[in-house]
């Protein structure tokens, strides 16, 4: 009865009033807008008019606002609302101690957020479902070449200012392996270290200078990343994407400051991100065109994705059964191709690394989230049985655990375990799995809060962290040092302003948010689902798999470089829902 009344046209003004009120409640609580603020009535009016506009569109355009489209909007709205509540619940209930009041505030805010997000998604789907970004006009010649040169020129000032490269402790450790100052280790991917070694060796044989030798690798990295962009632009042209959009995408890569910083930084994440873009683009080309060159690049990029980051390997394994199912009508090509990638990866990971005595990461490295959850229980002085305390004390000294524990940074707890008895933990995995499980059953809220704090940067937009705020080369014994080829106060101030714009300009700042990119990925999946182009969903699987692997084992809650690959492939993902083209999966099926 209530449902019939709620959807009755005569009840519409009251319905819109209720939805607007709850939406205002959610925004006021989340944004700390007081009930007396002049913004409250303005926002209420804006929400009411927006909901009224959407209500009229639903009545006038039933062929677009179908039950299927509305269902997609509501499912995604519910998902985003859940993320909102998980992230903002401490802020929403700030200052409240009564559990009943806390529940009322959270429930009201959740209802309001659901109304607001679902309305926004409904409007997005209304415009996106019938829309396409393709054009049949003549394509601009040499645009891929222009994109390559634009990226190189856009990144050149960063290279000259940071010459020969930006190097952090991780970078120095890899260079020390290259110079045989420390043993080989796969803690930072050994395959990536070997690529550094190849170009460093070429540079050293030609120049004899450590700085110039390192610059050889930096230039290679810049060329590779620009080449990935060029191939993306060539693909978009082949898909007949609007040329203005192609130019905007070129500007995204060439001018966005963190791209310039990252391409001159010696990190595994950078080449991995380029390989990830190649892999995703090749997958799209195979889906739409099935051209032979794409299979070759797909195989090579897949190999790099698997070898240049451990979560890339797991994301590939996660995606593999879905990829084979999606391309089941092309198994004569896809099955041997994926088998070759797997065989090559396993060959390098096992016999080759063993032959070079490469040390593998320890077990502690792979249990960051369980370790953080268990540590949270200990830090909050939760009750443990004598047997549970005995298991804990066999591995770590808990004397300083409260001082060392950081909710969004697992390295402190990892080092605490390594300072204890990590060998016992490794040899008794079953015992500690049961300890982790039993504590989770007893204290689920603590585990959930620990998980949220450890992963929030990857799935929620409004999280503060710096992006690309790195500079120079740390002190080291490898012989490399920072030697800028350009400088001066003007250069320094320009770099500082470019870095801060992401925190100053609304909307533009979303390009600096991993959580916003994840939400954008989900919205793209929603658009494709609303269009009922289900076979196209396979194109988003690599990005989704990448985020899922980070959510399973990230050591840091908000490290942008871990999800840089999603940022680098973002233009492709944003455009795929609007491509109107003949695809091989439809033809085969």
Description:
The longest helix is centred in the first third of the chain and has 30 residues, at 99-128. By secondary structure, this protein is mainly α. It has helices at 2-6, 12-31, 39-60, 67-92, 99-128, 143-162, 169-178, 190-207, 210-238, 243-255, 257-262, 268-288, 292-308, 310-326, 331-355, 368-379, 386-395, 401-404, 411-419, 422-427, 429-442, 444-459, 489-504, 514-530, 541-553, 564-568, 570-575, 584-588. The radius of gyration is 26 Å and the shape is globular.
Helicity, as a percent range: 55-70%
Shape: globular
Computed over alpha carbons, the radius of gyration is: 26 Å
Overall mean pLDDT: 92
| Main sheet attributes: strand count, strand direction, barrel closure | none
Q: Low-confidence stretches at least 5 residues in length (pLDDT < 50)?
A: 584-589
User: How are helices and strands ordered from N to C?
Assistant: HHHHHHHHHHHHHHHHHHHHHHHHHHHH
Termini gap: 45 Å
Number of helices: 28
Number of strands: 0
Specify the structural class: mainly alpha
Note the beta-strand portion: under 5%
List the helices and strands and how they pair.
Layout: H1 2-6, H2 12-31, H3 39-60, H4 67-92, H5 99-128, H6 143-162, H7 169-178, H8 190-207, H9 210-238, H10 243-255, H11 257-262, H12 268-288, H13 292-308, H14 310-326, H15 331-355, H16 368-379, H17 386-395, H18 401-404, H19 411-419, H20 422-427, H21 429-442, H22 444-459, H23 489-504, H24 514-530, H25 541-553, H26 564-568, H27 570-575, H28 584-588
Helix pairs in contact: 2-3, 2-5, 3-5, 4-5, 4-24, 5-24, 6-9, 6-10, 7-8, 8-9, 9-10, 9-12, 12-13, 13-14, 13-15, 14-25, 16-22, 21-22, 22-24
């Amino acid at each position: 009865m209530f449902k019939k009344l709620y959807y009755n046209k005569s009840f519409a003004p009251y319905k819109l009033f209720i939805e607007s009120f709850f939406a205002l409640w959610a925004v006021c609580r989340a944004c700390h807008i007081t009930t007396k603020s002049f913004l409250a009535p303005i926002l209420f009016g804006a929400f009411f008019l927006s909901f009224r506009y959407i209500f009229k569109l639903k009545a006038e355009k039933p062929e677009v606002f179908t039950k299927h489209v509305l269902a997609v909007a509501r499912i995604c709205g519910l998902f985003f609302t859940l993320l909102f509540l998980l992230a903002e619940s401490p802020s929403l209930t700030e200052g409240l101690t009564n559990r009943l009041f806390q529940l009322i505030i959270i429930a009201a805010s959740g209802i309001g957020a659901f109304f607001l997000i679902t309305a926004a998604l409904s409007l997005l789907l209304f415009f996106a479902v019938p829309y396409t970004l393709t054009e049949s006009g003549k394509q601009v010649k040499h645009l891929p070449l222009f994109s390559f040169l634009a990226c190189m020129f856009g990144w050149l000032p960063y290279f000259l200012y940071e010459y020969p490269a930006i190097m952090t402790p991780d970078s120095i450790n890899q260079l020390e392996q290259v110079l045989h100052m420390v043993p080989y280790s796969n803690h930072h991917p050994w395959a990536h270290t070997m690529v550094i070694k190849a170009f460093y060796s070429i540079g050293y044989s030609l120049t004899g200078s450590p700085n110039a030798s390192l610059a050889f690798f930096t230039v290679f990295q810049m060329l590779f990343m620009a080449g990935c962009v060029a191939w993306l632009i060539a693909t978009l042209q082949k898909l007949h994407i609007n040329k203005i959009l192609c130019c905007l995408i070129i500007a995204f890569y060439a001018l966005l400051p963190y791209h310039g910083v990252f391409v001159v930084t010696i990190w595994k994440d950078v080449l991995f991100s380029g390989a990830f873009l190649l892999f995703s683009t090749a997958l799209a080309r195979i889906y739409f065109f099935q051209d032979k060159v794409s299979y070759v690049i797909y195989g090579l990029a897949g190999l790099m994705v698997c070898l240049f980051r451990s979560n890339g390997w797991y994301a590939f394994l996660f995606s593999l059964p879905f990829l084979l199912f999606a391309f089941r009508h092309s198994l004569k090509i896809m099955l041997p191709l994926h088998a070759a990638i797997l065989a090559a990866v396993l060959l390098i990971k096992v016999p080759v690394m063993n032959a070079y005595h490469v040390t593998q990461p320890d077990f502690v490295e792979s249990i960051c989230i369980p370790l953080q959850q268990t540590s949270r229980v200990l830090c909050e002085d939760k009750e443990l049985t004598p047997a549970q305390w005995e298991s804990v004390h066999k591995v770590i000294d808990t004397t300083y655990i409260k001082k060392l524990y950081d909710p969004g940074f697992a390295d402190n707890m990892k080092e605490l375990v390594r300072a204890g008895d990590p060998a016992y933990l490794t040899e008794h995995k079953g015992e500690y799995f049961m300890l982790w499980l039993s504590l989770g059953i007893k204290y689920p809220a603590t585990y959930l809060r620990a998980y949220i704090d450890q992963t929030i940067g990857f799935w929620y937009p409004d999280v503060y962290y710096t992006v690309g705020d790195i500079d120079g080369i740390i002190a080291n014994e490898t012989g490399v040092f920072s030697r800028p080829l350009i400088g001066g106060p003007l250069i320094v101030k320009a770099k500082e302003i470019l870095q801060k714009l992401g925190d100053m300009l609304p909307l533009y700042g979303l390009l600096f948010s991993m959580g916003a990119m994840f939400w954008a990925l989900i919205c793209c999946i929603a658009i494709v689902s609303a269009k009922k182009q289900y076979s196209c969903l396979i194109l988003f699987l690599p990005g989704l798999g990448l985020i899922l692997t980070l959510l399973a084992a990230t050591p840091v809650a908000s490290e942008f470089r871990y999800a840089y690959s999603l940022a680098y492939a973002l233009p492709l993902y944003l455009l795929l829902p609007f491509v109107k083209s003949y695809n091989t999966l439809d033809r085969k099926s």
